[in-house]
Amino acid sequence: MGLRKLSRYLHLLEPNEYVSSNHTYDLVLFTTADSQKLRKTYAITQHLEMLSFFQRNFRFKGIIFTSSPSLISLAQSKNVFSARGIKKNRYGLPLIRSMFVQAKQQFDSAYYGYINSDILLPVTVFNILSILNYNRMIGTLSSNVQVSIWFDVVRNCGSRFAGE
Fold it and tell me: What is Dmax (Cα atoms) for the chain?
């Protein structure tokens, strides 16, 4: 749900106000990447840069679920938490529920979410979280609510100069 549609239902804040949650983090986002898809290394690097930037500037934690030693090393160099051993289905795809459970066990946050490793988010996601936190605080939203936020996203497809 975009901010315009969200604003029909929720009380908005002044642009310079920020309402944080009483959790350690306002948002924990996690992604997956594996060594078979290293042809997208540029996109994954940019995604890890985004997670690192958010960690430095907001109450945010990024997690990458991977078994690739090179991606673990890259994540560590950017101070992004890496996790191994995620449960997979019979087709070898990670189970989203398992990632949510592990993220919740590792980090205390108001919100948790999955994001593809080739997607870059705008910083306005934190404005939306602030609006949600404020509406939880005044009782417009329940504290146990699932919110899906859709953005017009630009897929990070890599650079033609990087050999992608």
Answer: 51
